[in-house]
Amino acid sequence: MSASPWGLLGIARTSDDGEIRRAYARALKAIDVDQDPGAFIALRQAFDAARMHAAQVAARVPEPALAGDGPEPEPRAESSVPEPEPKPELEARPGWVEDVEAIQALIFGDQTREAIFAEVGLRAERLLNGPEMEQIDHAARVEQWAVQVILSGIPRSNALLLPALRRFDWIQRYQKWDCHPAIRAVVGRYMDCQLVNDLNDGKGIYAMPFRLIQRGTKPRGSQVALVERFLAMVRSEYPTVLQELPPQSLEAWEALIARRNNALPARFGQARRIYWAKFVRFARRYKLDLVGQVLFFTVATLLGLGLVVATHGLALIFLVPALVNANKK
Amino acid sequence: MIVGIDLGTTNSAIACFRDGAPQLIPNALGDLLTPSAVSLGKDGALLVGLAARERQSTHPEATATAFKRHMGTRKRYTLGRRAYSAEDLSALVLASLKADAERFTGEKVTGAVITVPAYFNDQQRKATRRAGELAGLKVERLVNEPTAAALAYGIHERGDREPFLVFDLGGGTFDVSIVEVFDGVIEVRASAGDNRLGGEDFNDVMARIARAAIDPEEKLAARGKESLFHEVLRAAAERSRRALSEAEEASFEIVWEGQAYGHRISAAAFDEAVEPLLQRMRDPVLRSLRDSNIAVGGLSDVVMVGGATRMPAVRRAVTRMFGRFPNHSLHPDHAVALGAAVQAGLKARDAALDEIRLTDVCPFTLGIDTAMRDPAGRMVSGVFAPIIERNTVVPASRMHRFQTMIDQQKQVEINIFQGEARDVSENVHLGQVQVPVPPRPAGEVAVDVRFSYDASGLLEVDVNVPMSGLARQVVISSGDGGDSPEEIEARRAALAELKVHPRDEAVNAATLARAERCYENFLGDRRQHIGEMILAFEAVLERQEPHAIDDLRQQVEAALDLLEGERFL
Q1: Burial of B343 (0-12, 13-18, 19+ CB in 10 A)
Q2: CATH number for the domain including B138?
Q3: Domain limits at B538?
Q4: Where are the beta strands (DSSP E) in B19-85?
Q5: What is the ipTM score, two decimals?
Q6: Is residue B203 part of a domain?
Q7: Fewest C-beta in 10 Å: which of A48, A186, B270, B356?
């Protein structure tokens, strides 16, 4: 670890992969792995470091002979940057290439979501169940392409999401610790879609706020607390659902929420502002809307008054006669 | 002498390294393969090998086969009055192989290299090691099956090779390894597999198809004879599956309670039914390619081993998967045992292997369970944190640092897991360490966990708390209950006391068992003819005249070959 890898391998610094491997083989034969695992671990680390160096040099100086030889430093990074036009290598093969291009054109085109849904679904089924998919190399490339198109085409890529999810077993892969972040994002998107379906079916307490935003009805104060909670939940756990909601209506609601939370009467001084903030926090904790707040405070005031009256009454009944008696004596 | 043993689901083989080359050792019957089967005979003696397998369909309650599938589990096989674990049964097979080797070479067998499927987990590996010890063998090393096959291939054709893929579909397990050879170093780049996929699953599919045709209402196997019926079907399925490898159509025939049933199965129908099994082979292949960062185009060869790769359906699926024809130059049944013998030669420092080195990988991820906070600030526990990632070259040693999660935490409990799932409850639990830590606010106390994994699958866990200077160490492979040396010795003695059928009579026992099976498989005149042969053979055996026995045995074998075709292993 401490010494340079070249010393352990017994060669000068080089970017020739073949030479590094020969040196490693030579050094490996000189040690007894079973007796001295520590020596092997050190040698192996040196070997990996040296090859990493060689690969980096090869990547910096694009030599055609070396490029295909060493492993790239970043093996699976390509798919983490979703670009709108990532295509697998298009060799002049008709069937699936046509489907790939058509799906991309539809998803990134300007027809409505509903109009493209059926055709994308049909083409995706054909593409994903074609005979070429038996070949694992082709399947891997199509998978990478599908991930990118789905992620960059939200929310228009749903028609591709379902067949691809089934074909590539992404849900199963999602359970593994080494699941690629892009696939994790796709499965996340699928879960968001499930939530939207449930909300559309009227399931759960959030179906109502969802419908309110979706229909674009004028925001009203009585529902604002529920809508606010719904939006907070979506934002932290189902982020892509926001893209399913009509933007104007969403904006209107958010404006109302912001107004209610922060926009205080300007004439309030510092002390009153703190008081107001406490009041709002209290109201939020006990899930009170405006009417509720007024009602609550009325009831609270009445109760307080009642308490005062009651204690004063007790005093009148017991204390006054006693004082009177004492005076008499 | 150190031998190499391929302990398989259906068949096992033993080989030694002599005169610069690995060599298979024939058993008492002269066969290079010994069926992994144990059966309790009428006289109370245990039969191992072919004779036991022939009894599978006639005496299923007294016979155990394919027990490797339950290695390392609590499953018990009851033969007669005694219950056996898969380890015990494997030990009996190993002991019989050991006897064969000692007879063949005239040397004492001291140690063995035993192969296990690459995707065997820690418990299964431990059980295999114990089985070796129970058979009185010092287990020098456990080698992954595809690695052994690659070793046989690498020795077979010396010289540098671009990465090639070993595709090993055996009787009960499926493994894939990507191997590279340079300058005498045979380096496994990645292994993946499915430890519940093999020829037996294809037999089950075959039996299911046939049963649907023969017995659509499932009425035949009433009255608690379900397991017997299942064994009869399984034996017939094996035969017709083999026939299907050569023909477009095969017949599936059984005799049940005095009546013959038959069904013709076409290759097309079988191929369609096994499609889900073929699909399951894709995932490990993809994983190994992804882990080794090699594209299919970068593979120089796809080497097929394991008996089940003879099936045309499998060959076609592999051809489609890789877009090229696989390589069949290795003997599918012998390659693993030969490779194990090469490893034995390496272990014994054979001069012929002076310039050969092998490095293997750990096919599983090893890690511990941790807790973390999700975006909403809630604590989520049981999250798997990998320490040695799968396909790391072994021996390996890795360290990770973890922090405490709770204020004033007094103790850290570290659970060690093996597997790939993010949720630890789906992984295999290997052990536990508890370390006291100084109580401080959360996140201030660091705990270093170091995993050291050696080539035989021994895992050492070192836990170190830098703040208090406290260190704990556990060795996982011996920490498990039930394998202290004394206990192993006691169990070995118990197994040695069992009456095992004498090796010299194994040939006769096998013939007799085969004749009995045929007796149940045929009807009418042929059945009567076989019955007469059995009686005659038993009479000769009783008289103990070696020449007469040999003569008659050959006659019986020839007659049976004529009736049902050549016997197979």
Answers
A1: buried
A2: 3.30.420.40
A3: 503-564
A4: 21-24, 34-35, 37-40, 46-48, 63-65, 76-79, 82-85
A5: 0.86
A6: yes
A7: A48
For B385-440, the pLDDT digits (tens) are 999 999 999 899 999 999 998 888 899 999 999 999 999 999 999 888 899 999 99
Segment among B218-222, B357-361, B543-547 with least mean pLDDT: B218-222
Q: Supply the CATH number for residue B451's domain.
A: 2.60.34.10
Candidates A132, A124, A201; CA nearest to A157 is A124
The number of distinct structural domains making up chain B is: 4
Q: What is the DSSP string of B151-176?
A: HHHHHHT-S-EEEEEEEEE-SS-EEE
Which residue among B183, B359, B420 places its CB closest to the CB of A22? B183
For residues B118 and B147, the answer to whether their CB atoms sit within 8 Å is yes
Which of B422, B452, B459 to substitute to test the interface with A, most A CBs within 10 Å? B422
What is the C-alpha radius of gyration for chain A, rounded to an integer number of angstroms?
34
Structure tokens at B442: 């959360």
Over chain B, what is the mean pLDDT? Answer: 89
**8 A C-beta contact, residue B291 and residue B391:** yes
Query: Residues of B with CB below 8 A from A180's CB?
Result: none
- In this prediction, residue A85 carries a pLDDT of 43
Q: Which residues of chain A neighbour B296 with C-beta distances below 8 Å? A: 135-137
Residues of B that are catalytic = 6, 68, 145, 168
On whether both B147 and B288 belong to a single domain, the answer is yes
Average pLDDT over residues A30-39: 89
Asked whether the predicted pLDDT for residue A2 surpasses 70, the reply is: no
